[in-house]
Write a structure and sequence with these properties.
By secondary structure, the chain is α/β, with parallel strands linked by helices. The chain is built from 19 helices and 27 strands. An 8-stranded antiparallel beta sheet has the order 3-2-4-1-10-9-11-15, covered by helices on one side. A 7-stranded antiparallel beta sheet has the order 5-6-7-8-12-13-14, covered by helices on one side. A 5-stranded parallel beta sheet has the order 19-18-20-21-22, with helices on both faces. The structure holds 5-amino-5-deoxy-1-O-phosphono-D-mannitol (M6R). The site of 5-amino-5-deoxy-1-O-phosphono-D-mannitol has 17 residues, from helix 8 and helix 16.
């Protein structure tokens, strides 16, 4: 995934675009570049590294006052992360400029043809091939840039979000989207383009989200017409007014986005509940299910699809649905599901979970489920994202933008969404009686306030982090509803602190992982006073008798596990279905503090990008 920003108008485009690009760094940060133009003079600047480095270079080297710019922050897919492969890419004549997010799958074929006709390439990227293909078509057929892009797009296979510019026609930018998000910000005296709206949200709230196969030409003083490359039709755009503000995407006083997002969770969950938990009659209102009520009994199985943290949330969903509505559930990694010819039918209710709504594997798995006749329901955070649009219905988590690469508030809001869905289905299917639903309702409603209390433990957790941040390995254990939480805890730890961490069902420990336990191995065990409490106490004893270092997550008031542990964190007592909300918080904070102690880049861990829009 990469970040794209563009501007054409009357403002100083250099500052506008560089500032915007900084806000998109969560999408990739291995190299960055910018093209600047005032219609007569043009400049291109590129760096290996992040946007700050690019800003520095531009402030030293740039000598023009530009009003047109396109810029890019890259997460490498084709070619190493270096200056040559950084965008913008320039055509052989030097006249056409392109920034591109996505992958051109038939790039090799096109490259060979272009080379045979004399084209040369300076980078290893598929994007440079695309801009030269556009150039060749433009020259050969004497077309405008817009027309040449149209033709080129019909010849490529793959995904793109692109912005291009022609030095011979400095009045406009051409933008197109297939599979990689792009939106346009509209102002009276200029247009912005962004991979999302964050780069320009403080300048305008009027936005057009381009759909797949759509392209347009942004010309100051002209109204926008959207062209669909599939239907060959022009339409008027659908202009939306955004409600998110800039503050909501900045750090808000926290040192890191991840920390801010951990602390935002009570509010984020409240937002997920908002308008859906109806206090008056203790019911759940999910408009995404309104048209489905009569069909619910036809569904014989639930399949949950996601990747990474979203997959872990799906696993919590499995425990929830099976317990509350007694229907078989399968939880699938999207990347496996899409390639194994899964057996799906119209009896299946498929829940697709994705924070970004743009994860390539999840999107593809969704399409396969849809083609096989299943009902597909989405749980996404990003409004208007590809997955949200592809599903038949769904519910947005409304967690607000998640910038930290490590997912935190996305996880708990996904669980909040699954909880509401499970309760709603239980009331439709009558697997729970009114009193049970009312009790669950009250506990669910109380989750944000209890999490706020729990967050006060951050300093204590910082101390725990101090004495085990030097380890090379860690084990995370949990049973039942807390097993997915253990997996999530291990994922958080490994992705931001680079400590090798494994999550396991606690009882599985004796089938292998126990061999790893020694005095240097911290074992984080979720041992709440629910479900199989006695069994988990035995698991703790097994670790202690092998000199393992035990950090336990225990229910308030617990004495047994507390006494056995080297250190502990208390979480509120609750029905077992709600423990993931509480057990997750200390694990998120622990991974954060450990990563800080180890001097890691918490918000932008190495080799990772926020949303994986390629296979
Ligand atoms: O946007 P999505 O929820 O589809 O993303 C799925 C995973 O890429 C994501 O959860 C990833 O595992 C995070 N880095 C975890 O913190």
């Amino acid at each position: 995934m990469c970040g794209i920003v563009g501007y054409i108008g009357i403002e100083n485009s250099k500052d506008v675009v560089l500032e915007g690009l900084k806000r998109l760094e969560y999408r990739g940060y291995d190299s960055a570049g910018i093209f600047l133009s005032n219609g007569e003079s043009h400049e291109t600047h590129k760096v290996k590294g992040g946007v700050d480095k690019l800003k520095e270079l531009v402030s030293k080297k740039s000598s023009i006052n530009s009003n047109i710019s396109i810029a890019h922050t890259r997460w490498a897919t084709h070619g190493l992360p270096n200056k040559n492969n950084a965008h913008p890419h320039i055509s052989n004549s030097g006249e056409l400029i392109l920034v591109h997010n996505g992958i051109i799958e038939n790039y090799d074929e096109i490259k060979k043809e272009l080379i045979s006709r004399g084209y040369q390439f300076n980078s290893d990227t598929d994007s440079e091939i695309l801009i030269n293909l556009i150039e060749e078509i433009k020259i050969k057929d004497k077309l405008t840039l817009f027309e040449a892009v149209k033709v080129a797009l019909s010849q490529i296979v793959g995904a793109y979000g692109l912005v291009c510019f022609d030095k011979n026609n400095t009045e406009s930018l051409v933008v197109a989207r297939l599979g990689s998000p792009l939106c346009i910000g509209i102002k009276k005296d200029g247009f912005f383009v962004g991979s999302d709206a964050t780069p320009f949200i403080d300048s305008t709230r009027d936005v057009i989200y381009l759909e797949d196969f759509e392209m347009t030409e942004l010309k100051c003083g002209s109204s926008i017409k959207i062209y669909n490359v599939k239907t060959n039709e022009f339409t008027s755009p659908n202009i939306e007014t955004l409600k998110w503000n800039l503050e909501s995407i900045q750090k808000g006083g926290y040192s890191h986005f991840m920390l801010k997002e951990i602390f935002e969770q009570p509010k984020a969950i409240e937002n997920t509940f908002s308008g859906r938990l109806i206090e008056r009659n203790k019911t759940i209102k999910l408009s995404g299910l309104d048209d489905l009520v009569d069909r619910i009994d036809d569904f014989k199985r639930i399949i949950i699809i996601g990747c990474g943290t979203s997959w872990h949330a799906g696993l919590v969903g499995e425990y929830l649905f099976e317990k509350l509505i007694r229907i078989p559930v399968e939880v699938e990694y999207a990347s496996e599901f899409r390639y194994r010819n899964p057996i799906i039918s119209s009896d299946d209710f498929v829940i697709v979970i994705s924070q970004s709504g743009e994860t390539a594997d999840t999107l593809e798995a969704l399409k396969i489920a849809k083609q096989s006749g299943a009902y597909v329901f989405g749980i996404c955070n990003v409004v208007g994202s590809s997955i949200a649009r592809e599903t038949f219905s769904g519910l947005y988590t409304h967690a607000g933008p998640e910038i930290g690469v490590a997912s935190t508030k996305a996880f708990l809001t996904q669980i909040a969404a699954l909880q509401m869905l499970a309760l709603k289905l239980a009331s439709i299917k009558k697997t729970l009686n009114k009193e049970q639903i009312s009790n669950y309702f009250d506990e669910l409603k109380a989750v944000p306030i209890k999490i706020s209390q729990l967050l006060k433990n951050s300093e204590k957790i910082k101390k725990i982090a101090q004495y085990f941040f030097n380890s090379n390995n860690a084990l995370f254990l949990g049973r039942g509803f807390n097993f997915p939480v253990a997996l999530e805890g291990a994922l958080k730890m490994k992705e931001i602190s680079y400590i090798h961490s494994e999550g396991y069902p606690a009882a599985e420990m004796k089938h292998g992982p126990i061999a790893l336990v020694d005095k240097d191995m911290p074992v984080i065990i979720i041992a709440t006073r629910i479900g199989n409490y006695e069994k988990i106490v035995s698991n703790v004893q097994e670790i202690k008798s092998r000199n393992g270092k035990v950090i336990s997550i225990v229910s308030e008031g617990d004495q047994i596990v507390k006494n056995l542990s080297d250190d502990y964190i208390e979480i509120p007592k609750s029905n077992e279905i709600f423990t993931p909300f509480y057990a997750t918080i200390p694990l998120q904070l622990l991974s954060f503090h450990v990563a800080i102690e180890r001097g890691c880049n918490v918000d932008q861990p190495r080799n990772l990008a926020k949303s994986v829009t390629v296979e």
